Amino acid sequence: MKTFKGRVIVPSGDGKEVSTEALVSAQGFNTLASFQKALMFNDKTAKCSDQNNPGIFGKPMAGKALCLPQTIGSTTGGMVLFCASAANRQPACLLFSKPIDSLAAAGAVLAGVFSDNPMLTIDSLGEEFLAAVKTGEKIKAGNDGVVEIG
């Protein structure tokens, strides 16, 4: 089991630890491109629709631990994360290897305040975290910023 410590941006809604499967994006995560079809066509599993992200394209994002370096793309990124959360199609948690970018932070905070489905959001886990975690592995993440792989 590998353990990493990051900074909590948004705690889990119920105060409990999140335990789920990892979904790893080794590259910048385009929020709009990834969630667009799920939000437009009512895909409850929120399959990633970003064909430019081959590591996660077509894979369900809802309920997963989305492990990524940072988000990229449109200024609508924060609102897309909020809308995914409001529609109950959000990842269980967002785990960033780098410091969170302002657009993702805005979406995570909006979801934490204005939806019933906040996403535990932790950043600054380090490049070692992203190198260590693999899609499908079990992840445990807590409101103390500790993330366990395995």
Question: Can you tell me about this structure?
Answer:
This protein is of the alpha/beta class and 150 residues long. It has four helices and ten strands, in the order ββββαββαβαβαββ. The protein has an eight-stranded mixed beta sheet with strand order 1-10-9-3-5-7-8-2. A two-stranded parallel sheet has the order 4-6. α1 (31-40) packs parallel to α2. The longest helix has 13 residues, at 102-114. The protein is globular. The model has no long low-confidence stretch (mean pLDDT 96).
Topology, element by element:
Blueprint: E1 2-5, E2 7-10, E3 18-24, E4 29-30, H1 31-40, E5 65-68, E6 71-72, H2 77-86, E7 93-96, H3 102-114, E8 120-123, H4 127-132, E9 138-141, E10 146-149
Parallel strand pairs: 3-5, 4-6, 5-7, 7-8
Antiparallel strand pairs: 1-10, 2-8, 3-9, 9-10
Helix pairs in contact: 1-2, 2-3
List low-confidence stretches. Answer: none
Could you give the order of strands across the largest sheet?
1-10-9-3-5-7-8-2
Helix percent band: 25-40%
The averaged pLDDT comes out at 96
Number of strands: 10
End-to-end distance, in Å? 5 Å
What is the makeup of the main sheet?
A: 8 strands, mixed
Radius of gyration: 13 Å
Shape: globular
Order of helices and strands: EEEEHEEHEHEHEE
**Helical region count?**
4
Structural class, by secondary structure, is alpha/beta
Percent strand equals: 25-35%
